[in-house]
Target: Polar amino acid transport system substrate-binding protein
Amino acid sequence: MRRLALAAVLLLGACSAGPAPSEVVPRSAAAPQPANASTVSAAPSSSAGAPSCDATASLRPGPLPQAGQMPAGSTMAKIAQRGRLIAGVDQNSFLMGFRNSFTGEIEGFDVDVARQIAKAVFGDEKKVQFKVVTSAERIPMLQSGAVDVVVRTMTITCDRLEDVDFSQVYYQAGQRVLVRRNSGITGVEGLADKRVCVASGSTSLGNVVNRAKTTVSVPNWTDCLVMLQQGQTDAISTDDTILAGLAAQDPYTEVVGARFTDESYGVGVPKGQEDLVRFVNGVLERMRTDGTWSGIYGRWLTPLGPAPAPPVARYRD
Model:
């Protein structure tokens, strides 16, 4: 399916009478910016007095209960009684969480992780309701109880642990840079006099705002891709997982430079639901040992290279 999507992009490019997106196109009027785009002049302030912590050390799982037999009174039993897991995911990050234009279904690496959690509760991975959330909506949706979990390229940080809980690390990413081919930009060090696009509510924003001349914040990463294609920005900077998906959608772009951050993804869980954290960690342990994690990687993330070993779990108890 991904090959079909890419082929469609290439076919459209071949049939178009217009110039490639990497060419400079004279414009009689400025192209409109995405809704809610804004210029950011300083890194977002962190939570006041947030302590340092061992962010990626989670809670040790116990034995996984049998699907369909959740412990009485547990968070998982409440989810089972409802009849579905509600998972916050993305629909704009190709490879990680995106809406398939042919089927209308949401797919991707993160989506399959959420399905595995549903399977562990119900014995059926289809008993999950996906709720689309932006980067900025992830924590509020968990705090309000609108979702049971968030599986959306969410980096575990000490600041975020003040507001929500996290599983163990299920994927290790790193921030890089996406540019138009032949731009002359070779990595993050080339952004000092450039205009860079990032998504609001992401750790990527704080990592790049002081490295670029101008930083533009938008709700979704696909908004950044449109701005890059229209010449409104010189680069996009975020996790390599997200950039690989954007590059697959536009063959006139490329990911450049080495990783300059470590981004440890965890499943977000409402604060205080320790039983659900331990349960999710049990699911991730099983995925790591029975080959499920590697199979999901092979299905979605081969553009990033051969499957690495799954992240090693770290626990604080």
Residues 1-19, 21-28 have pLDDT under 50 and may be disordered. The chain has two domains: 75-173+264-304, 175-261.
